[in-house]
Amino acid sequence: MFAVRSMLRAGSRAATPLRAFSTSSMRQANTLLFVEHKNGAINPASLSAVTAAQKLGGEIHALVTGSSSHAKAVAEAASKVQGVSKVLVSTSDAFSALLAEPIAPLIESLVKSKSYTHVVAGHTAVGRDIIPRAAVCLDSSQVSDIIEVQGEDTFVRPIYAGNALATVMSKDGVKVVTVRGTAFDAASTEGGNASVEEVDAGEVPQPTKLVQEKMSESTRPDLATASRVVSGGRALKSSEGFAKYIEPLADKLKAAVGASRAAVDAGYADNALQVGQTGKIVAPELYVAVGISGAIQHLAGMKDSKTIVAINKDPEAPIFQVADMGLVADLYEAVPELTEKL
Amino acid sequence: MRASLVNQLRVLVPVKRSIDYAVKIRVASDGKGVDTNVQHSMNPFDEIAVEEAVRMRERNKDAIKRITAVTAGPAKSQDVLRTALAMGADDAIHVEVPGPIEPLAVSKILRAIVDKEASSDEIGLVLLGKQAIDDDASQTGQMLAGLLKWPQATFASKVELEGKGDKGDKVTVTREVDGGLAVVETHVPLVLTTDLRLNEPRYASLPNIMKAKKKKVVKYSVADLGLEKDIEPRLETLKVSEPPQRQGGAKVENVDELISKLKEAGRI
């Protein structure tokens, strides 16, 4: 919304920072980076967020939250991430599900007590849940899903399903930013040597409890970070179609499986596989779109792929306008042939 | 016998008027925004939120007392309130704001509405879309929950309310998270945001559209809510540009040619 029209109050750049600790106009960035982790592993989006945060300059302190059994090991791993100068680790059983209510107040209190200028996190389901709640408590207008850092207050982000790019300048004292993982390289998980400091969790609100997780089990690479993705659309006609045509091709290519919204809504593929504006944003080396027409909402999720291959029997399908290699063919013949010949 | 009708839940459903999802947007010639002189409609995620509120009442008549739709925007945004009313909302609130506003400001407006209504008919559940398809921010629900210090359940694909709409009633929500689903237990008062698969919104029938014209829309200005300062933008849009256009490549004749091209490009 803010990006739709130019602001009328041009020129009033100076906002009131939460705490002015420098008289110089050049404020040194001091970033608090929220680390997302699961099963002891740091989420790749958090590593991309480190790279984005490095472009702000200044120090990066990584915040690791979790149960005492998990957080210490993740903090250890975070201390080795290149670019991180300090790891703050806070443990509480209330943190283990990475829910917003306990974690947002911790971020708020850390930013206020340690005068961070930036809060940065990956624009993942977890980041999207927690970070706005922290931002509002800091009275900061969050900048979501950035794809470029132009300065410590200026960011580029896609709007309208990626059909326009907005360059926005934040006038807030604390800049709160979530980062599109595929737009920044992951920071190296070796070579860093950050100190680890424990932070007392204090009183932790926990009005929401995780009762069950139903994760899609797959031995294939993670969709959001895979270097190759094979996606199917409505033309597959059934979940059996996915199993028979998409999965063997994905296995041959060691690729992750994706799906269009139409295929997910029709029940042919799991929700977690949806690629697009409202699903996953991917940017693999190779994206193979099978039986996908290429609605703008789908293109928003994959058009930054290095090479796009489209297999579709409709030569007019919009997917061909973005595909580097297009094959106009019946997928039921072409895909098995491709799988076999690879 | 019910203890008291007052305990029944009043649901607030914020809706946004945005450019219709099917419109191919164009960057405006001044490079400061997009051409907004096009078809608008209710943000699709908000339709799902309205639908869910109506279905919650259909499922559990005793628990939901009233559904109030609310929007913040220019005079034209009344259209989306009428749509919400035709879908089954009982009444509506229009906060008139001339220009575009950021999620932070919207969350403050919504909190002011919740506070204002608390004296007469308290709101116990706020149901929002998970994101607006124009700014794609995905912030407002979470920000509102933070301001109200209520629990939040974001990206819901299934919602089960237990009880009669009393404070503290258990709500079980299935959330769409990366890699699958997470089921959480929380309680009212609550802020919920909807994911695509929560439901299939109904079309408003003509009789319902006619009925909706008679339903009440209360209008507030930002000044009525004492928020003139709070809606000032914090983000300045320096530029809006077209994304780099991909060059659609050539079509290949057959699978063999596709494989050799992929090899040439070093992708396999």
TrEMBL record, chain A:
Superkingdom, natural source: Eukaryota
Domain Electron transfer flavoprotein alpha/beta-subunit N-terminal: 31-219
Short name of one Pfam family: ETF
Name assigned to this protein: Probable electron transfer flavoprotein subunit alpha
Annotated localization: Mitochondrion matrix
Gene3D superfamilies given in the database record: HUPs (3.40.50.620), TPP-binding domain (3.40.50.1220)
InterPro entries: DHS-like_NAD/FAD-binding_dom (IPR029035), ETF_a/b_N (IPR014730), ETF_a/FixB (IPR001308), ETF_alpha_N (IPR033947), ETF_asu_C (IPR014731), ETF_asu_C_CS (IPR018206), Rossmann-like_a/b/a_fold (IPR014729)
UniProt KW keywords: Electron transport, FAD, Flavoprotein, Mitochondrion, Transit peptide, Transport
SUPFAM superfamilies found in the cross-reference section: Adenine nucleotide alpha hydrolases-like, DHS-like NAD/FAD-binding domain
A molecular function GO annotation: electron transfer activity
Similarity annotation: Belongs to the ETF alpha-subunit/FixB family.
Transmembrane segments: none
Function statement: The electron transfer flavoprotein serves as a specific electron acceptor for several dehydrogenases, including five acyl-CoA dehydrogenases, glutaryl-CoA and sarcosine dehydrogenase. It transfers the electrons to the main mitochondrial respiratory chain via ETF-ubiquinone oxidoreductase (ETF dehydrogenase).
Gene that specifies this protein: ETF1
Location (main, coarse): mitochondrion
Note on how the cofactor is bound: Binds 1 FAD per dimer.
Record bears the keyword Nucleus: no
Subunit structure, interactors included: Heterodimer of an alpha and a beta subunit.
Positions bound to FAD: 234, 260-261, 274-278, 291-298, 312
GO biological process annotation, one example: fatty acid beta-oxidation using acyl-CoA dehydrogenase
GO cellular component: mitochondrial matrix
Cofactor(s) required, per the database record: FAD
UniProtKB/TrEMBL annotation, chain B:
Localization of this protein: Mitochondrion matrix
PANTHER family xref list: ELECTRON TRANSFER FLAVOPROTEIN BETA-SUBUNIT, ELECTRON TRANSFER FLAVOPROTEIN SUBUNIT BETA
Native organism taxonomy: Eukaryota, Fungi, Dikarya, Basidiomycota, Ustilaginomycotina
Domain of life of the native organism: Eukaryota
UniProt protein name: Probable electron transfer flavoprotein subunit beta
Provenance organism: Malassezia restricta (strain ATCC 96810 / NBRC 103918 / CBS 7877) (Seborrheic dermatitis infection agent)
Cofactor(s) demanded: FAD; AMP
GO cellular component terms, A-Z: mitochondrial matrix
InterPro entries for this protein: ETF_a/b_N, ETF_b, ETF_beta_N, Rossmann-like_a/b/a_fold
Function description: The electron transfer flavoprotein serves as a specific electron acceptor for several dehydrogenases, including five acyl-CoA dehydrogenases, glutaryl-CoA and sarcosine dehydrogenase. It transfers the electrons to the main mitochondrial respiratory chain via ETF-ubiquinone oxidoreductase (ETF dehydrogenase).
